[in-house]
Design a protein that fits this description.
It is built from 22 helices and ten strands. The chain is an alpha/beta fold and 603 residues long. α18 links the parallel β1 and β2 (427-429).
């Protein structure tokens, strides 16, 4: 290809990848729904986007390294200490038992349905084990299932990607070893491959742990160090034996997530941006290699295989994984109706199928197009039916707001109690031990871990946060937290109004209005509370509020939380619950959980 064709091809791939992700964000659909057909159509219309012609022999190694980065990032989220009780039981079963059942079933079904050899069918079965958070996450955001369902499915997607990557790499080397004479030689080759990946991952994890533990690295240098280490270790392992770098990358991520003495941040902006771009590029590039000729004799058998996986295998996996647990039957059925395939399936199919074709494995040329069809079929099916299925099974989350209150001062704890008495599911976070204890003593739910994980649901710990209220007595902390969280939290993020004419670490304008009416800033609110003012709730009867009371929030009859801000005050209506700050001289009328008399003329 000429240099002009290469430039045009690279530009088209990047533009299509980002453009499809942007359009998917605007349409609120999984990006894969647009990426796969866009890449396939581009590959049909022009050869410029075909990565095998653009990159030649470098394409397969680059795909392997790209997948290693994705799996490393997924491995960083695999801190199993966050899973407890029956939820942990279900997730663990979905990983090991679900992977085993899916692997065996897909392999056995592929032999008669796809007319594949045993070796190719086993490889396809290993590839189709994975699901992936990059597909499941956007679907669940749109569906809004119950919190436990969300937690189970997101954790399954996060865990099954690296597990599937390891299984795929091991099966790949086992298939290649199967062509060698003698059982001892086959087992030896299989063991060598596994050992190279495990040792490489252990060495890489140890080196990274030492660097991150004992060197003072800023965020940029720390993330680039991790990126360089993953690429170097994965490339070194692959150079010794093909695709062992995938095993090493997963081992590195899992080790760093669980080794003592090292707290990995909940948010990894560099890796998140890089992984998002890699996913888009891989989907466009891989789907561009799938030609209409390769699909001609594969589409119908692959659709039959996909139907069997969706209608038989996945419900069986859900049943086996939830038996003898407290998961309700409706949630079990929904777990059985959510297993779309994603980027790791496409990338591993592209990487492994090419090598197996070169090795002369019968039916290996059908692995990539069959995987492509299964990905498209499952994503389209689940994407179109997930919401109706969740609505039919009645497993969607309540539309009521779920605020996260950040702070542990006495008035903040009372505010949490008031919002809870108004019917909201309140979550709180505080950094000081005494504040966290006061939250527990008040019977309010306390978010574990760090603030970013609590506010954004990183690691599938806390989903469903609709509002973040930054209410600490540190104005600069509130401002910095707002600047960080407003880019990642699903709902609005508000902070307390700082003292007038104060000089903080960020500009006064932070892109979000401060809480409460003008003049009711942090020092004034704390002063009035110390003087005897209290936070109470009242049910609105005629739209009026008691004289001298300050409106803080309104809770609408449908459970939606509306905050009073420095420039706007929500208008109460009949049926609303008003959260009010009483005047300072007024003695405490009762606790937030006391019965709420209706608001009438004069209070």
């Amino acid at each position: 290809m000429t240099s002009s064709q290469v430039l045009i091809g690279v530009g088209l791939i990047v533009a299509l990848a980002v453009g499809c992700q942007l359009l998917a964000h605007l349409l609120r659909v999984p990006a894969i729904l647009l990426l796969l057909p866009a890449g396939f159509i581009a590959g049909v219309l022009t050869d410029d986007v075909n990565p095998e012609k653009l990159l030649g022999e470098a394409f397969s190694p680059l795909v392997s390294l790209a997948v290693a980065v994705i799996l490393y990032d997924a491995g960083l989220g695999l801190d199993l200490r966050h899973l407890k009780g029956h939820t942990r039981t279900v997730v663990v079963r979905l990983i090991w038992l679900g992977a085993l059942v899916t692997f065996v079933s897909a392999a056995l079904l592929a032999i008669p349905i796809m007319s594949m050899s045993m070796a190719a069918a086993v490889m396809l079965g290993a590839i189709l084990v994975v699901s992936g958070p990059t597909v499941v996450g956007p679907l669940l955001t749109f569906v809004r299932p119950t919190e436990r369902l969300q937690r189970v499915l997101v954790w399954e997607g996060s865990l099954i990607d690296p597990v599937g990557g390891i299984l795929g790499a091991l099966v790949f080397h086992g298939v290649l070893a199967g062509g060698q004479p003698g059982l001892a030689a086959q087992l030896g080759a299989f063991g060598v491959s596994a050992a190279i990946g495990l040792v490489g991952g252990a060495v890489g994890a140890a080196g990274l742990w030492l660097l991150l533990r004992f060197l003072t690295l800023d965020e940029v240098l720390g993330t680039t160090t991790q990126f360089a280490a993953v690429i170097a270790v994965a490339a070194g392992c692959d150079a010794l034996r093909d695709d062992t770098g995938l095993i090493a990358a997963v081992v590195m991520g899992m080790a760093l997530a669980n080794l003592p003495g090292l707290d990995m941040p909940a948010r990894r902006p560099f890796f998140e941006t890089l992984v998002s771009l890699i996913i888009g590029l891989l989907f466009i590039a891989i789907s561009a290699t799938v030609t209409p000729q390769s699909l001609r004799h594969v589409v119908l058998p692959a659709l039959v295989l996909a139907a069997a996986l969706v209608l038989v295998v996945r419900p069986l996996v859900a049943l086996l994984s939830t038996v003898r647990t407290d998961v309700p039957h409706r949630e079990r059925w929904f777990i059985g109706w959510m297993a779309p395939r994603g980027i790791v399936a496409a990338a591993t199919a592209s990487t492994f199928s090419a090598a197996l074709v070169q090795a002369g494995v019968g039916g290996a040329e059908e692995i990539l197009p069959a995987t492509f069809v299964v990905i498209v079929a499952t994503v389209m099916l689940y994407g179109l039916t997930a919401v109706p299925a969740a609505r039919f099974l009645d497993v969607r989350r309540s539309a009521r707001s779920r605020p996260l209150l950040v702070g542990g001062d006495p008035w903040v704890v009372d505010l949490g109690g008031a919002l809870r008495s108004a019917g909201l599911d309140v979550l709180m976070w505080a950094g000081l031990d005494r504040q966290r204890q006061s939250i527990r003593d008040a019977g309010l739910e306390l978010a574990p871990g760090e603030l970013l994980a609590a506010a954004t649901g990183a690691g599938a710990e806390l989903e469903g946060i609709t509002d973040v209220l930054l209410l600490t007595d540190e104005d600069d902390f509130n401002a910095l937290a707002l600047m960080t969280l407003k880019e990642t939290a699903e709902g609005p993020v508000h902070r307390l109004m700082p003292p007038n004419r104060s000089h903080g670490v960020v500009a006064p304008y932070t892109g979000s209005e401060a809480l409460f009416s003008a003049g009711l800033n942090r020092p004034e609110l704390a002063r009035r509370y110390a003087a005897g003012a209290r936070i109470v709730t009242r049910e609105v009867a005629d739209g009026a509020i008691p004289a001298g009371h300050d409106m803080l929030f309104l809770v609408r009859p449908d459970g939606q939380l509306t905050a009073a801000t420095e420039s706007t005050s929500p208008t109460p209506a009949v049926g609303d619950v008003a959260v009010l700050l009483t005047p300072s001289p007024e003695p405490r009328p009762g606790t937030a959980s006391a019965p709420r008399p209706p608001i009438g003329p004069g209070g």
